[in-house]
Amino acid sequence: MSDLAFDHAPVGLAVLERRVITRCNLQFAATFGGTTADYTGLPIADLYPSQEDFNRIGALLQQPEAKSGSYSDERIMRRRSGALFWCRVRGRSVTPEAPFQTGIWSFADISEDRPVVSLTPREREVAILTCKGLSAKEIGQQLELSYRTVESHRAHLLQKFGARKLPELVAKLTGMPL
């Protein structure tokens, strides 16, 4: 019965060992394109927009706040076709002391709720921290940038998303209705 639940879950599921997919379900294959067999043995890095994004998320999983073994975020991922899309990602490490050893991850396509806009890795970081409610000064401290640099990144985000003010930008970034 557990195989039936895993295989036919309404959200994409994957088991990763050392950041390599060892098993995935039908919805995962439908979300990323192809069949479940296409993903067995595939490094999850192949589904990130860039190696830099893959490394950044990996570094986050090493932070003390991620030591609980659970992690979640919303990020841009890459389909097998190369198309980028927004994805809600949640994961749990079976071995929190070694977060990459074995983990169960869910992937939900949320691209209908928000457009994919080309962002630099730094703009992506500023966007994520802005959505978490951090001020420009707090973001600057966390990213080791001046608050003016953060404000410059926010100005670019406002322009790219066609938002007039910060609350409108946050609504567009999070997919919330205005």
Automatic annotation (TrEMBL):
It holds the Pfam family PAS_9. One of its GO terms (molecular function) is DNA binding. Gene3D superfamilies: PAS domain, Winged helix-like DNA-binding domain superfamily/Winged helix DNA-binding domain. It comes from the Bacteria. InterPro entries: PAS, PAS-like_dom_sf, Sig_transdc_resp-reg_C-effctor, Tscrpt_reg_LuxR_C, WH-like_DNA-bd_sf. One of its GO terms (biological process) is regulation of DNA-templated transcription. Residues 112-177 form the HTH luxR-type domain. Coiled coil: none annotated. Keywords: DNA-binding, Transcription, Transcription regulation. The keyword Zinc does not apply. NCBIfam families: sensory_box. PANTHER family: DNA-BINDING TRANSCRIPTIONAL ACTIVATOR DEVR_DOSR. This is LuxR family transcriptional regulator. It comes from Leisingera methylohalidivorans DSM 14336.
